[in-house]
Amino acid sequence: MIDFLSKWQTLIGAALGPFLLGLGAWFKVVISKKEERKEHLRRIEISITRSLDDTYKTRQKLQAFVSRLRALVTRIRATAGKRNFSLETTNYPTIRDVYRDVEVPNFKIKSYYLHNKILWADAGIKETNETVAGLRNDFADLLRKNELHIALMRQNQNPDSARQREDYAYNLEGFANAVDEFIDKFIKQGIEIMTQVKIYNNHLRKRSGKWFLWKCEGTNFKYFHNKAKQNEFSRNLISLERLDKIIEKEVKSAIQSAEDRAARLLH
Q: Each residue of 96-122: pLDDT tens digit?
């Protein structure tokens, strides 16, 4: 009997050892992934905060630039005289690129909403930086063309300086309108998307983050009765719009607070 029990103990020990080893390795992987996701959410918070701050600063500098352009247009149109050509200009602002962490879109965060919004925000930041750089080049081209226009006109015996001034003012005004449109449409939309990322990510970082994620995106009786329905729904824009509405009030409040802070800094 003792030999029998001894053999069973040996057999159980031989089987239990690898099982416990495998279980320990599994727990280690689970904990590692949990910590990795926690770190990813932390980096998203840092990245999106920096990107938002840079975006507001970019908008502020572009708005100031537009104001100077419109004032310049007014002065040019107020100028009189047959030989008064206009070479007046204003400096295009020095604007650094909006911060962009290129690794963030590759983070595995178990949220189709946050992942998609991050992809949109990342693409928007990239396009913003390219557009701002493009505007700088376009403005430099506008100034060079005006100088060439004046040089060609001065070769005539009776140069029409009034026409030059009006053409120059018209081009400057058109440029100001284009920058305004970029601010009002593209940058405004970018701020909204980045704020959505920030708000949603903050919810996921809280102690109740898993509950919030399950409530919004998980399989439950309120939205999805099974995983297949959830996966089907998560692959279209309607799902994003539904989640937009869940955090809509928080997003609007955050944007308004940021706008108020930006306004105070101007005064």
A: 999 999 999 999 888 989 999 999 999
